[in-house]
Amino acid sequence: MSRRPGFLVYGLLSAFVLGSTFPLYWSFVIGSVTKERAIQSPLPLYPGGYFLDNARRVFDQIDFWSALANSVLISGISAASVVFFSTLAGYSFAKLRFRGSNVAMAFVVATMAVPTQLAFVPLLKTFSNLDLTGTRTAVVLPFLVTAFGVFFMRQYLLDAIPDELIEAARVDGCSQLRTFWTVAVPAARPAMAILALFTFMQTWTEFMWPLLILQGSDVQTLQTALDQLKIAPAGGIADIALLQAGTLLATIPLLLLFIATGRQLVAGIMQGAVKG
Amino acid sequence: MSVTRTDAPAGEVLATSPATGSPVPPPGLTWRQKLSHWDFRFSPYLYVVPFFALFLVIGVYPMVYSGYLSFFSWPRYGLTHGEGVGFANYGHVLTDPVFHKAFWNTIGIFVLSAVPQVVVATVVAAMLDTPLRGRTWWRMSVLLPFVVAPAAAALIFGSIFADKTGLANEVLRAVGLSGVAWHTDRFASWTAIATMVNYRWTGYNTLIILAALQAIPRQLYEAAAIDGASRVQQFFHVTLPSIRPTMLFVIITATIGGMQIFTEPRLFDTNLQFQGGADYQYQTLTMYVFNTSNSGTDPYPRAAAATWIIVLIIIGIALLNYAITRQVQRRGER
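ok -> structure tokens follow
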């Protein structure tokens, strides 16, 4: 379709984008008025001047900064770990020959279809036996490797490294590890960045597992802190202004990440789609 | 040097046949050459072992363990599992009216999210697949909701769909309609929850479909245009058939995700029982598992049994998808 798009296309796309941004705007509107104003009809349409006030109340109700630090730590460790193990295994699957490689890869792909939550109940039982409930370690453990990561790196490395390059390194007397380090890792870098980004976001937004394992504990992630914020004002009227201010505060870190890396994220999703 | 180049191990890394030599290096090699032989022989395994070791512990073992667990009783505060009970836990779950409700709720929410999502994503992708000004900007804007975590999206839309003070009802009243009981009416609550899911995933799927659209050879459109096909005809006869595999991919991912909906309905709940509404009208299967694992009698075995039932449902739906797509494809080829 090579014809230049007309006003209709631009109009419809603009409407779609407006619809996408509106909920965030709405969250800011409600988060920036007093709690009485937030539920008073007619509802406010423009932001008020109480956002900082509401934010302060959020910080009083939940330990926002510790939850933020936990989220950064847990998502960061998960991203680094997934990238490390996936690059190593993905390289081996894509470029090295070994017995059982096809069967092992088929197994990895098959497990991708199984929902992750299947593992949650038994993991919860195991972790409570090990006295790990309510710890950051317990939150991050299930997210240290993913089948998707290995699949993704393998697909990328299949075409990204010419076989001749590995052969040349070998002829020059490189050990396997050195070949991996000097040939594979530089070639894999773009995919590693995308995988890190994805894993970080995925672990960051994870809700059910931290909720299960952190129940009744002081340790919280940003997502479970929001859950607590919702539960907190029991008895009184629901404090929507507080809740929206907290929601927006919890969304800002990923928004910043998106502004910095959105371009790569778009490219990564589109690339993954063609290859997957 | 010339020995290593022409000798047997050289073929192992990239040769077309898998390694078939014996694990013992050929005789007459120096210590260095032997070392290199072992290196090339076993490194491939060394690189995948760390992944598989972790994956077995946190992925495979729990699945197998939960299957095992589902055949025993295990009192709430018991240290080990009790006696074997056969399929009693499965029987309990399958005859539980709450589970039946959760099943239909999940299917309902899934249909209300998957269908509009795929349709809208395809249309938006088709619009993005034109020579737009500021292409990158549009693509990024479409993806923006993806960074709003499900918990955050649930709380924002929870305020929009609040029964008394929500924006949605205020708008409905402003245009002369009556407000909707978003939390108590079953279908309305499904719609509200599906909206949260759609909000987050439509843009993501748009980009996946856009990638498929761009892989279609442009000559196909030119040929269709020469044959006199209108742009709408081109869309139905060239575009849609070409992106069918991607559609199947999107639908299967949506199925796996749809069966796992948890965050949105849980945070949509306004009472603190978290049972998905007073009458369980929007409790999903995953909420059922979560609540069961916190329940009084045999929490873990029953939750494990429920999880395995969900997995079987997912496999069933995936196979159904596959069969339908094959059928459609065959008909298309005729």
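The domain at 90-333 of chain B is CATH 1.10.3720.10 (MetI-like fold).
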